[in-house]
Amino acid sequence: MKQTITAQEQELNKIFSDDYLFEIPEYQRPYAWTTEQAAELLEDLIASMGDGAPVENVSPYFLGSIVLIKDPAYPRAQVVDGQQRLTTLTILVCVLRELADDEEWHQDLDTFVRAKGSKSRGTEDRFRLSLRKRDKDVFRDKIQAAGKLPKFLEQDKATLSDAQRRMYENALHLWNELKVVSPDKRELLSQFLTRRCYLVVVSASDQNSAYRIFSVMNDRGLDLSPTDILKADIVGAMPESIRSQYTEQWEDIEEELGREEFKDLFAHIRMIYAKSKQRGTLNLEFRDGVLSKINGREFIENVLKPYAEAYGTVSRAAHESTGDAEQVNIYLRHLNRLDNYDWAPAAIDFFKRFRDEEAHLIHFIRDLERLAYALFITRANINERIKRYASVLRTIEDGGDLFSNESPLQLADIEKANVRTALDGPIYLQTRVRMPLLLRIDDLLADNGASYEHKVISIEHVLPQNPASGSTWLSWFPEDEVREGWTHKLANLVLLSRQKNSQAQNYEFERKKTEYFQRKGVSTFAMTSQVLIETEWTLDVLKRRQERLVKLLTTEWRLH
Questions:
Q1: Could you tell me if residue 546 is inside a domain?
Q2: Are 128 and 114 in contact (CB under 8 A)?
Q3: Quick one: 236 and 208 in the same domain?
Q4: Using CB atoms within 10 A as the burial measure, which of 19, 263, 316, 399 is most buried?
Q5: Model's pTM, two decimal places?
Q6: Could you read off the pLDDT of 419-433 as tens digits, one per residue?
Q7: Confidence of residue 223 (pLDDT cuts 50, 70, 90)
Q8: Do 158 and 238 share a domain, yes or no?
Q9: Which domain holds residue 265?
Q10: How many secondary structure helices (H) and strands (E) does the chain include?
Q11: Is 70 exceeded by the pLDDT of residue 208?
């Protein structure tokens, strides 16, 4: 067969049609999008479709690209890149279908999920997207199959795999967001999604070509960075007599930060100026939002250089002063453990303005860390975070009181309550939250004196997740519901400076302490050493420990 490579922009009407039968190969990683990405997708779609104008008059929305292995003569297509996007879009269509009040809309949206079989022709339903074998049945029978999704959302997600839990959580989030929307708006969203949303479909007829394309598309080192293009615009527009001088300054800053951090700096500067989420390319938004207000020389001297210095301090927790610089750096280290850097523009802007006002700086960075962890622990999505930090940036710019109760830097009573509720829940199941949070607690237990540089840090349950029959664990926790309710709470979690030992996880308590927490060469964390003084690990011990740990954070973050 002749090898072919094609690339074309196609609307979702075409993507979810008889032209394609998408399959996720077994070697692909599991479905991994969280409610943050799903929420961002939905909010961007709703924002882009406008206020109710006919979809033909709305600007097209670009959803990205997918890479396929596909013979042009047949619909079967193996997905090399794009499974997260295709899966989430399918979930969204299924939610819209099940919420449709009109039967015609229900049937129409169903055609984007499956091609109906025919009894007379002896054919079965063909779903337009098939996941990996281990997740395929749940996705097909609980989400894609018409009429099954509502019941699926009522079931206990504890029995699901991680990938299936992501599907469940994303479907539930989309369901809750869209069920309160009017039927007319849901129909408009369905039209916009299928007729004005586009993917670039890159198809190769053989696997080698597909992976070569995928590698090139994802090899950042081969692409021009947005900062390379901006450099050409900014320095290239200067008089020739000073170009080399400013080129040298630009490249010195880039070399000092590193190429990736330098690009991140430009994204943070754009946010400081625009105070809104980036929706277009960094180049265009930077030109419009920043460079339209300042010439190239002023930008390098008065914006790039001081913000780069502030960014280096913030990202490396490297504040220096004659005062209590370490107190500032402690909070910066906590912030840099989070799974997002949406807080960074506010920190960078404040450091640029007030780096020499030590007391003011400590007050601000302490409250910023508190806000960032509150949003992190309650899993605020990216749009919520950006709106909040944009308000903080406006207050900084306007010279407002950041420390008044009404300030966006401060937590409202309902937010404090939500954080306390999250802290008292099954925190281990919050995979992105658990490690930064446990390290934060450990630092408090060590009186802000903990500093670890272990190559490996892992989290272990003291009470095992699956205690052996006849073990002391089951005598201490005879009721399954009680035991399962406490297994993933803060009180039952400890930190280890090594990989987990699967054999030791179910040891009895005394043996586990000796062989798991006290073995030679295993550094003991502050929160782990507390376990060693206990002679038993009962419900009363867990309750006492849980109360203490939550109180530590409640006091530190002023959550009362």
A1: yes
A2: yes
A3: no
A4: 263
A5: 0.70
A6: 999 999 999 999 999
A7: very low
A8: no
A9: 226-403
A10: 26, 10
A11: no
